[in-house]
Amino acid sequence: MSFLKKQWANVVEWEEFRDDMIFWKWSNREIKKGSKLIIRPGQDAIFLYNGKIEGIFQDEGEYDIESQIIPFLSTLKGFKFGFNSGMRAEVLFVNTKEFTVKWGTKNAVLIPTQELPGGMPIRANGTFHFKVNDYIALIDKIAGIKDSYLVEDVKLRIISILDQLLMKWISKEGKDMFNLQANAFDIAKGIQEDLDMEVMDSGMTITGFTIMSFNYPEEIQNMITKTASHSMIGDLNKYQQVSMVDGISSGKVKGGGVASDMAGMMMGMNVANQMMQNMNQNQSGSKNGLKPNFCPNCGQKTGDANFCPNCGQKLI
After folding, report:
1. Which end of the chain has fewer CB atoms at under 10 Å, N or C?
2. pLDDT at residue number 72
3. Are the CB atoms for 47 and 18 separated by under 8 Å?
4. Per residue in 48-85, is it b (16+ CB within 10 Å) or e — as a string?
5. At what angle do helices 218-233 and 236-250 cross, to 10 degrees?
C-alpha cells in the first residue's frame, strides 16, 4: 500500500527554476493524496483552481498538501482525497526578488533642438529595477495565458518605449542638450514614473531607473570639449597668452630663437599694456574721488588707508 501511495503522490515544486525567471506554473497534473509542496527561499506559491486564486503561501519549507495546505484554500478546504481520486489544481510559483536589468539604446535617439534642424543624435545607457507586487493583476494579464515569464520579456517591453520616453523627458523644460548628464537624475525620475504606469497593469512595479551616461556623436563631443576648455580660460587675451606659453614650452614655436624672442616680446607688450591700463584705471579712480588700489606716486598697495603707507601720498 505504501508503494501505491508513493506512486500516486507527487512533489509540487518549482522544477524549472532560473534566476531570471519571474514566475513558473506547475500545471496539467493531478495532486494525489500524500503529495508535498516545497517552497524555496525567494519564492511564493499561489494555488489556482479554475483560474482563481485559492490561497497564497509565502513561508519557505516543505508542506503536506492534504493537512497543511487544503485547510487554508478558499473553496477547496473541505476537499477529501479518495483512493483513486486526486485534485486538479495549478500552482504558480513567483520569484519575489527585485530584478536588475541593464539597458542601452540600440540606435541614436534624435532629440529635437534648434541648434540642429535634424535633431541631436544621442545614445544612453543605464539600469532599471523591478519586482512583482500585484498577484491578481499578474495572473489576469500574464500568468493566465503563460506558463512562465522571463526578465528578458520585461526588458523587451521596456526597450520598445524607452526611446519615446527619453525624447519626452530630455526635451521637457528646455534641458541643455550639451550637458544632459547634469540633468540625468531628473530625466531618470520622470522616465521611471512613466515606466511604472506602463507595467502596473501587469502586476509589476519599477523600483528604480538610472542613466549612467549620455553619448554624443564624436564630432559633437569634440565641440563640447573644445567649448568647455575655452570657457575655462574665459578671457580671449588670456587664452592667447596661455597658448603662446604652451607653444614655447612644447617646442612648437621655433625658428632659431627669433620666433621665440618675438613671441616673448609680444607677450611682454601685452603684459605691459595691461599694467598701464590698470595704472590708468587707478589714477582715474583717484581723480574721481575713488580710493585707488595702488599709490600713484610709488606703486605701493594701499589697502584701506587714506594716505600711502610708504611715501605718505594722499590717496583721495
Report:
1. N
2. 93
3. no
4. bbeeeebbebeeeeebebbeebbeebeebeebebeeee
5. 100
- Residue 189 has which C-alpha cell? 525620475
CA distance linking residue 132 with residue 199, whole number of Å:
10
| DSSP line for 104-122 | E-SS-EEE--SS-TT-EEE
DSSP readout, 19-39? TTEEEEEE-SSEEPTT-EEEE
Across 173-191, average pLDDT? 85
State the CB neighbour count (10 A cutoff) for residue 215: 16
Selection from 22, 32, 62, 289 nearest residue 142 by Cα: 22
Residues 99-152 have pLDDT tens digits of 999 999 988 888 887 767 778 889 999 999 999 999 999 999 999 999 999 999
Phi, psi of 201 (to 5 degrees): -70, -10
pTM passes above 0.85 = no
Q: Which residues contact 195 (CB under 8 A, 6 or more apart)?
A: 128, 158, 161, 165, 206, 209
